[in-house]
Specification:
heterodimer; A: about 230 residues; mainly alpha; 12 helices; about 0% strand; B: about 300 residues; alpha/beta; Rossmann fold; Alpha-Beta Plaits; 6-stranded mixed β-sheet; 4-stranded antiparallel β-sheet; 10 helices; 14 strands
């Protein structure tokens, strides 16, 4: 599995993908930071992550859309699937690599925290809880992105499916309160207030597990029908 | 050793491979032959565990490819058709990645990668990006990735497709060398290649095995006709009207520009055609310029066997 993580990370940083993801996120985040801090005169670090979640909705496919679709299209899938590496390890390896990019991005946002510290007294504990929630949200997005990438050979289609699903998440609460509880973006809402809700955390983790399992099952199944 | 027992692969109602069985022994070099769509690649994909068979068992060095897939896969190096590679990696990075996927001991990894790059002649290009390589070089990178973990069995799907003649010769000699240390299974369209490299040939047509034998035996199977090619100088057209006892047919193959003609002459079994033709033509004052037995190649054998299968 370490080989897959290493290779994926190398791929993120040898191609522009990793830089584009981190760069785009930070540029957008800076704009929201600027408007929040200067327009509203607020030194609240956490609330910018609500906007951060919106950014994530649109840029997660940059990380995930090629993960499996590209391997299938180029045929390199054959190299991996004929090696002694199990499909489970392959998928988890790819998931961890994409998550690491997200972690790097989150670490970069502490730059804004440092700026706020100069002007006021932001809460470090709330910031950490927010980042945990943001990480869980990001991991959920990544796991769905990888699943979308496994159902098609076309990266663009995988990307559109991913964004489509995330946007649907926004509108889920409008269909009723029971839907609101499973909307990923809603699950994140409590974290910037400094609350770690066990139910929300478990729902996130279950969603991640479900997406990764579905991807693994789909790839196993494809061996039978291919 | 690979044992394939009654393996069938179905896609819905379409049967791609139909109840095939064969055994490949250690150290053998075996060629898979067959027209396009015959089931060669499907069979290879099943051997390597890339796809699963609908029925039957494949045992690789004692490991069942379905019950113990990872152990079975560890025995084999596979070079897929069309040489899929990671274009953004360098040659060395790719080969190292393949070594890591096959769980090579970390201490040996570096030495092994260098040794294999040297073996395929890519030592000087190891830091080049794969996307900047020529087709022949890519083929060698793929081969390096296939053998880097020193597999007992090497499976090559169409290893020389798309190469120029010089590259083909290079890859072929690499494969010949592989045959000294590994069991090699390769599929190919080029029959001369198979007859040069392989100890045994498996011919597949329409998902079924139609022949398993050595190239020599396959060739001799079809060369049973008693016939001969004769080139003569025959300005008076005597040959056309000749009637010779025991000769069943005389057919004009081509009339050359210099006035000479080539005929195919067939006779009944057991007749020494060379002697007969020599004496008969001498009586008619026909000058024989050349006389030769038709050479049967694996190509003829292949066509004949495939045709038999189609007729049935």
């Amino acid at each position: 599995m370490r080989a897959v993580i290493k290779k994926e990370l190398k791929n993120y940083f040898l191609s522009p993908i990793g830089y584009v993801f981190i760069g785009l996120f930070l540029i957008m985040f800076s704009i929201f930071f600027y408007t929040d801090v200067f327009s509203y005169k607020s030194t609240n670090f956490e609330y910018i992550f609500y906007s951060g979640a919106t950014i994530l909705t649109f840029i997660t496919p940059i990380l995930t859309m090629r993960t499996i679709a590209e391997e299938r299209k180029n045929g390199t899938e054959q190299l991996i699937l004929t090696s002694p590496l199990s499909i489970t390890k392959l998928i988890i390896g790819k998931f961890i690599a994409a998550t690491l990019i997200l972690v790097i991005t989150e670490v970069c946002t502490y730059l804004y925290f440092a700026i706020l510290m100069y002007f006021g007294k932001p809460h470090i504990s709330t910031a950490l809880v927010t980042q945990l929630g943001f990480l869980l949200l990001g991991m959920s997005y990544i796991s769905f992105g990888i699943f979308a990438s496994s159902i098609t050979e076309n990266q663009i289609v995988a990307g559109i499916i991913t964004i489509g699903f995330f946007i649907l998440n926004w509108f889920l609460p409008q269909f009723g309160s029971s839907f609101a509880n499973i909307s990923l973006i809603n699950l994140f809402a409590k974290f910037p207030r400094g609350q770690i809700d066990i139910a929300d955390t478990v729902t996130f983790l279950t969603f991640i597990l479900m997406c990764l399992s579905l991807t693994i099952i789909l790839m196993q199944r494809r061996k039978m029908v291919k | 050793m690979i044992e394939v027992k009654n393996v069938t692969k179905k896609y819905g109602s379409f049967v791609a491979v139909n109840d095939i069985s064969f055994t490949i022994n250690d150290g053998e070099v075996v060629g898979f032959l067959g027209p396009n769509g015959a089931g060669k690649s499907t069979t290879m994909n099943m051997l390597t565990g890339y796809i699963e068979q609908t029925e039957g068992n494949i045992i690789v060095n004692g490991y069942d490819t379905i019950k113990k897939p990872n152990k079975a896969k560890g025995q084999m190096g596979y070079m897929p058709e069309g040489v899929p590679l990671y274009n953004d990696l360098t040659v060395k990075e790719f080969v190292t990645y393949m070594a890591e996927l096959h769980k090579i001991d970390r201490k040996q990894k570096k030495d092994r990668v260098q040794a294999v790059l040297k073996e395929v002649g890519l030592e000087s290009m190891q830091n080049k990006l794969i996307k900047n390589l020529s087709r022949g070089q890519k083929q060698r990178v793929s081969l390096a990735g296939t053998i880097v973990f020193d597999p007992k069995i090497v499976i090559l799907d169409e290893p020389t497709v798309g190469l120029d003649p010089k590259q083909i010769t290079e890859i072929r000699s690499l494969i010949k060398n592989l045959g000294k240390k590994h069991t090699v299974i390769l599929s190919s369209h080029i029959l001369s290649e198979v007859s040069q490299i392989c100890d045994r040939v498996i011919i597949i047509n329409k998902g079924k095995i139609v022949a398993i034998d050595t190239p020599e035996n396959l060739e001799s199977k079809v060369s049973t006709n008693n016939s001969i090619y004769v080139t003569v100088e025959d300005t008076d057209n005597k040959v056309d009207s000749m009637k010779i006892e025991n000769v069943s047919s005389i057919t004009l193959l081509k009339a050359n520009e210099d006035g000479t003609k080539q005929y195919e002459i067939k006779a009944n079994e057991g007749i020494n055609l060379n002697k007969l033709i020599f004496s008969e033509f001498a009586k008619q004052n026909i000058t024989i310029l050349e006389m030769k037995k038709p050479e049967t190649t694996l190509e003829d054998a292949f066509m004949e066997i495939i045709k038999e299968g189609d007729d049935k």
